[in-house]
Amino acid sequence: AVHIVGSINIDIIASLERLPLPGETVMAGATAKLPGGKGANQAVAAARMGAQTRMIGAVGDGDAGRWMRDRLAADGIDVSGIEVLEGQETGTAYIAVDAEGENQIIVVSGANARLRPCAPVDEGVLLAQLEVPVATLLPVFAQSKAIRILNTAPAVAGARALFEHVDVLVLNEHELGVYVPADGDDDDLARRARSLLCRDGQAVVITLGANGALAVRSDWHLHVPAVPVIPVDTIGAGDCFCGALAALLDEGRCLEEALPCASAAAALCTLGQGAAPSMPTRAAVADLLLG
Length: 291
Ligand code: ADP
Prior knowledge:
This protein is α/β, with parallel strands linked by helices. The chain is built from 9 helices and 13 strands. A hairpin with a 2-residue loop joins strand 12 (213-217) and strand 13. The radius of gyration is 18 Å and the shape is globular. The site of adenosine-5'-diphosphate has 19 residues, from helix 7 and helix 8.
């Protein structure tokens, strides 16, 4: 199974003509409420790829938390590992999007910041991101015998302590720039990615948007091209990539086999609006790869 330790948020999205300047009020037509949080998004992606998926996270004890649990359960995700924290707010992202698709986002961590470590995971795949505390993830990663995937998003200080306990690190170019700043005109991505390796057997995967992804180990590298699409909105593409990758590794596929399929899933995710709602099914990914 895929065991996901991560954030559960409600995304409140307002569409505006243009984003407000400091001190300014801008009127929006309407708001949309969507399930979100990198943990929850990746869980939906893994479940739709066909993995038995368990979400480990925390929500508040109000309607928002119940709504999120129901949304995840509706995708067939095991929600028994979601703690309901009394008196806490469910994580909430307030998102403003302008007519060009540019956005401003405020995230209230709420219950996510109070998630406690879960029991070690000794089968299948453990997958986490950094919207929950590093101190919560550290004992879980250090003690688990599952295949451990860490998506180091968002880039946070102190995350490096986790890296030695990870089998596959997944990060985008922006996050790579935070952990390993490009050194002058040296944009050798493979070298920068390799500098994150702590031991033999580890892999680092850098996602490159429309340029696909680059995977490295100490003695090996692979560039996986993106599947050409005309994106509607790329929100959630990275989450889709991680969730799909976890599902495929859980099936026993090797990284070389899993990456092209994760890349195809992420390309499909860019064709729909929002994150969780646009995660593709396994059948849609198979059609794209065969077609
Ligand atoms: P993030 O969502 O974290 O910014 P990326 O933009 O690197 O991450 O996207 C993650 C993955 O989604 C990429 O590795 C690629 O497989 C896929 N993807 C993203 N943008 C596109 C695009 N424009 N066309 C095709 N695939 C894309």
